[in-house]
Amino acid sequence: MTEFWLISAPGEKTCQQTWEKLMVATTRINNLSTNHKFNIPDLKVGTLDVLVGLSDELAKLDTFVESVVKKVAQYMGDVLEDNKDKVQENLLANGVDLVTYVSRFQWDMAKYPIKQSLKNISEIVSKQVTQIDNDLKARASAYNNLKGNLQNLERKNAGSLLTRSLADIVKKDDFVLDSEYLVTMLVVVPKTNYLDWQKTYETLAEMVVPRSTKQLFEDNDSGLFSVTLFRKAVDDFRHKARENKFTVRDFQYNEEEMKADKEEMTRLSTDKKKQFGPLVRWLKVNFSEAFIAWIHIKALRVFVESVLRYGLPVNFQAMLLQPNKKNMKKLREVLYDLYKHLDSSAAVIDASMDIPGLNLSQQEYYPYVYYKIDCNLLDFKV
After folding, report:
1. How far, in Å, CA of 190 to CA of 225, rounded?
2. Separation CA 363–CA 377 (nearest Å)
3. Range of 248's domain?
4. CA–CA gap between residue 12 and residue 56 (Å, rounded)
5. Is 166 inside a domain boundary?
6. Among candidates 218, 207, 214, 199, which has minimal Cα distance to 183?
7. Which ranges constitute the DSSP H helices of 80-233?
8. Could you tell me which residue, 259 or 364, shows the higher pLDDT?
9. How far is CA 309 from the centre of its chain?
10. Which terminal residue of the chain, N or C, has fewer Cβ atoms less than 10 Å from its own Cβ?
11. What percent of the chain is modeled with pLDDT above 70?
12. Do 368 and 245 share a structural domain?
């Protein structure tokens, strides 16, 4: 399971007792979940007014930071072209997998100094993650343009003979060049009509050079044939060819243009390879930064909500539960029985009820403080 429930309950005589009670109820008797203490340092409480305002701001920030974490993860999947093992290798936090990071969470004192006010810490996170979001947009746009241009060129060099580029198929020797009177044309003939072509091409217009046709290329459906004729017969030949289900391609042999196309393809391919490594490294580093910031926001929310619900002095135990998938419903019931005395109204409240003054549309409400952390951040299951 990649889902965690981050909860808190007030300290009994000591916070250790709160922890022991949870362990007995959820793990030792019936193995409903794997539990870890979630360490939150002594943060500055500030005033009640500030805490109430901060509670709403942190909810919005949580949603924003989660969306950025998911965007970076999804883009990593795009860049690595959904090579799931590779994606998983790169989606780490502080060098460890996400489940390990969350279950062993330690507050980063250097990045988020606890001497600062809660509001300042949330602003540090907000600035940091907004920067990552902006950088991601710029980098993704540049790489996607490059990738798109390369795909367009590759598409031109593949597909049906009726539409694909012919530059890598034809050679200079296939054409009569620099003649005032003669011109070589390229015609796509369905495989089933080869015999008809050989029989009729010389008679499709008056001035076709006899025995001048040559097959240059073949794909699954058609062949590409060259034919030489007088320039003044071109329109008539084109018209008659169409009537016979032969398609004349508009193509003029231009060595410089073809060379430029090949060089452009090579340049784009080289640029893509050059950008790939640094882009994956940037995504890896900034995924880690954004994910770490997100878990710190969860810690801030638990702290603020616990103080608002359970009062001062600060006395609560934050706990991280990793539910066993089959027992999630049972675990909810056990937690409810354990903590229902904290808030008698919570029994009847669920997220679908619209109660004035309680913003429950985004968050389930329980008698204990609860936030969900889901470490599966991709559409495909890594």
Report:
1. 11
2. 19
3. 172-252
4. 28
5. no
6. 207
7. 84-90, 98-103, 118-156, 194-200
8. 259
9. 37
10. N
11. 93
12. no
**Is 67 within a domain?**
yes
* 203-262: pLDDT as tens digits: 999 999 999 999 999 999 999 999 999 999 999 999 999 999 999 999 989 888 888 888
- The total domain count for the chain is 2
The per-residue b/e assignment along 200-238, b for 16 or more CB within 10 angstroms, e otherwise, is ebeebbeebeeebbeebeeeeebbbbbbbbbeebeeebb
Note whether 291 and 299 are within 8 A (CB): no
Do both 242 and 282 map to the same domain? no
Q: Tell me which residue of 100, 137, 176, 132 sits closest to 285, measured CA to CA.
A: 132
Query: Residue 68: which of 136, 140, 21 has the closest Cα?
Result: 136
- Strand-pairing partners, residue 206, are none
Distance CA 361, CA 352 (A): 7
Helix (H), strand (E) counts: the chain: 9, 8
pLDDT band with cut points at 50, 70 and 90 for residue 98: very high
Average of per-residue pLDDT across 104-132: 97
Examine the domain organization and report whether 199 and 243 are in the same domain. Answer: yes
Q: Between the CA of residue 162 and those of 156, 158, 247, 248, 326, what are the distances in Å?
A: 11, 11, 8, 9, 57
Q: Do 223 and 285 fall within a single domain? A: no
CB neighbour list of residue 85: distance below 8 Å, 6 or more residues apart: none
User: Does 160 map to a domain?
Assistant: no
Side-by-side strand order, sheet with 222-230: 214-218, 222-230, 182-190, 247-249
Q: Does residue 215 fall inside a structural domain?
A: yes
pLDDT over 50 (residue 351): no
Residues 189 and 236: their CA atoms lie apart, in Å, by 18
41 in the same domain as 123: yes
**Could you give the dihedral angle defined by the CA atoms of residues 72, 75, 81 and 86, in that order, rounded to the nearest 10 degrees?**
-10
Name the pTM for this structure. Answer: 0.80
What distance separates the 2 farthest-apart alpha carbons in the chain? 107
- Claim to verify: residue 124 and residue 15 sit in the same structural domain: yes
